[in-house]
Amino acid sequence: MLAYRTMWSAIMASLLLLLAASSAAPADALSAPAAGLGADHGLSKRSLFDPSCSGVFDRQLLRRLRRVCDDCFNVFREPNVAIDCRENCYNNEVFRQCMAYVVPANLHDEHRQAVQMVGK
């Protein structure tokens, strides 16, 4: 019984040391994927999307608009389509052409309203 208690105490002490060491680690050591982005890039919720989108931050709307550009890129396989489609927070001619090509006509107004909401 004494051996069991000694072993249990050693395991618990090891776990506490491990926990203390991980909480004392520097913040940039814990966020290794973000380290490759550069020191001047802060990761906020909005920074994951186009910074020109200064209107309503709605993940669902932004995801829907991004999907139009992604689908358009998958159809045409032109790198400029992927980049230009997102310019000016989706308020551009390339996005409108992509929308006309990949979005059913009955959803065009819904997408136009989404562009207005996120781009204000």
TrEMBL record:
Alphabetically ordered keywords of this record: Disulfide bond, Hormone, Neuropeptide, Secreted, Signal
InterPro entries, alphabetized: Crust_neurhormone_CS (IPR018251), Crust_neurohorm (IPR031098), Crust_neurohorm_sf (IPR035957), Hyperglycemic (IPR001166), Hyperglycemic1 (IPR000346)
Signal peptide residue numbers: 1-24
GO BP, sorted A to Z: circadian rhythm; neuropeptide signaling pathway
Major subcellular site: secreted
Family stated for the protein in its record: Belongs to the arthropod CHH/MIH/GIH/VIH hormone family.
Disulfide bonding pattern of the chain: 53-89, 69-85, 72-98
Annotated SUPFAM superfamilies: Crustacean CHH/MIH/GIH neurohormone
GO molecular function: neuropeptide hormone activity
Statement: the UniProt record of this protein carries the keyword Transferase: no
Gene3D superfamilies: Crustacean CHH/MIH/GIH neurohormone
Name the record gives this protein: Sinus gland peptide A
Lineage: Eukaryota, Metazoa, Ecdysozoa, Arthropoda, Crustacea
Gene Ontology cellular component terms for the protein in this record: extracellular region
Domain of life (superkingdom): Eukaryota
Annotated organism of origin: Penaeus vannamei (Whiteleg shrimp)
Pfam families named among the record's database cross-references: Crust_neurohorm
Keyword Secreted applies: yes
Subcellular location: Secreted
